Amino acid sequence: MTDVPQLRIANTANNGNTGTACPRNRSVLDYDTEAALLEALQGVHISPRVVVPSRNEEPASTVTIPPQPTTLQVTESASATHVTDWIMPDHPTSSDRTRQTPEHEAARLLVLRSYEILDSSRDDPAFDAITREVQERFQVPWACLSLIDLGRQCRKSMVGDGLSPRDTPRRDTFCGHTILDPSGLLVVPDATLDPLYRHKPAVQGSMALRFYAGCAVTTPEGYRLGALCLLDRQPRPQGLNADDQRDLRTFADRVVLELVARRNRLQSGRKRSASLAQDIKLPFGSIPTAPSSTTASETDSSGTGSDHGTSPPDSPPLRRDENKRSRVDLQALQHAIVPDTAPIMPAVSSSKTHGPPCAPKLCTDLMIPRPPPNVLLPDPQTSGVDPDTYLVQLVEALWGAKLVVKPALELENFFPVISEDQMAAYNMTVVNLARNNQVDQLRTYYQQHGRTVLDCFNRFGEGLLNMACRRGFVDMVQFLLEDVGLSVRVRDDYGRTPLHDACWNPTPQLAIGTWITQRDPVLFLIADKRSYTAFQYARQSDWAVWRQFLWDQRECLHGLTAPHVLAQFSA
């Protein structure tokens, strides 16, 4: 890659117009090839330095060019606006930021395009749930997930009144600076006091923005696609403390998880559509591959959806070590889709006590038979169908098995019996570490004392896995399942399983649901003492999300047709 000097551009104070008038902001979607995109980015010859106004100077309205010749040359086919629309202004008093080059920017934009998220519907429950949690956690008027395109900022998800959904010129944004910050975290305590930000339209206009904090959304490929940010009309001189920064980074990690899962669903759906279209009669002529927005009929009059039983309090946000990437980043993302094959799930031992840990056979391990030809599969985008009904319809359509739900407390030799030793191991040290989502400390405790200290339960039959699933502690669940090897087939004295707890969380816990489905899909057929399945604790407004989840995980559902399962759960 050629080492191109950084172009430094003066700030602007013209409410979004940079240089000459531009009919619209450019997008990576405007270019069909990588060569065309790179040419669009390289429509300017870059000198090592361009003069920038000092703190005491008023920002220029156009690019400031030093007197030497050929410092900045614009090609005949590009306007000055288009040439500079992707280049963020430098801070007048600081140069501590990642250098922008056409080659790196082209690579970043191609990765952004590969996620197929630009210009998609803004009604996305998975992303909206995260931004709502961010708003509540940090008590700000607005929270937003922004994607930084070639010359524009696209708001994928936002909460708060009065925040415009329209695209914003990239150079007018705060998030455009966030993705260039070396730490990936940008905090502006009071924008009116900062010479780089005080002239931004969001600060000068009706929004009257004062406080901004954003964390870059960094993909497994290593590119920053945008930022998850907090916005407030009130300045916050203290900025964000260490806990706040960790929490915001972890929320951004969850955005990455959803982005990758979404892209994988799209790619996997297209692949299977090509292979199955020849022998399966598909609804409406195609296989649905992406979650649809929740229809009005699936949302109650309050806008929050029906909630069976009492909803638990909002779970505290995930936390992670400041200097370590979340363990969810790569391993969990690889499990975000169902692979091309899935197994018949093995029977769980009917031993009265927990035996030694064994490697679970996931739905990636064994081949499953293809569905019969000429089968009409239920469409997950059909509104009004609850997830339990859709599950039964899908399994019957795929493999001809008719299933029924069974109460957990009536099943014999199905759930292991909790021992006195396991209840004795349930001490406050372990509980506090799990309750506070201190994964690293719990891992150290596990390494020092062994598996038995974490395979513990209280007198009601609730274990650490139940707690982590209920609170949506994704890192904790992954550690308990993959490192410790805890079983998901456990229940409390009310008949609730870890899947019940995961569905009880106000936010659809798709990653946790995926891991449980891969290990033991039979838990979908378990009802608690109130005769509620796990999905009956999910909000009605999330039915569409869970139907799509079942469609995406349909290969793993073949475990429901195993002989030992049919012996107990067939209609």
Q: How does this structure look, described?
A:
With 571 residues, the chain is α+β, with helices and mostly antiparallel strands. Among the domains are: 133 residues, GAF domain (Beta-Lactamase, 2-Layer Sandwich); 243 residues, Alpha Horseshoe (Serine Threonine Protein Phosphatase 5, Tetratricopeptide repeat). It has 18 helices and ten strands. Strands 5-4-3-8-7-6 form a six-stranded antiparallel sheet. A hairpin with an 8-residue loop joins strand 4 and strand 5. Helix 9 packs parallel to helix 17. The protein starts with 33 loop residues before the first helix and ends with a helix. This is GAF domain-containing protein.
Count of helical segments? 18
Walk across the major sheet and give the strand order. 5-4-3-8-7-6
| Main sheet properties | 6 strands, antiparallel
Tell me what the CATH architecture of the domain at 327-569 is: Alpha Horseshoe
| Anisotropy-based shape | globular
Cα(first) to Cα(last) distance is 63 Å
Superfamily (CATH H level) name of the domain at 327-569 = Ankyrin repeat-containing domain
CATH fold node name of the domain at 327-569: Serine Threonine Protein Phosphatase 5, Tetratricopeptide repeat
Strand content: 5-15%
Q: Return Rg in Å.
A: 26 Å
Q: On the 0-100 scale, what is the average pLDDT?
A: 75
Q: What proportion of the residues is helical, as a percent range?
A: 25-40%
CATH level 1 name of the domain at 327-569 = Mainly Alpha
State the total count of DSSP E strands.
10
Instruction: Catalogue the unreliable spans.
Output: 1-23, 44-81, 278-361
What class do helices, strands and sheet pairing give?
alpha+beta
Order of helices and strands: HEEHHHEEEHEHEEHHHEHHHHHHHEHH
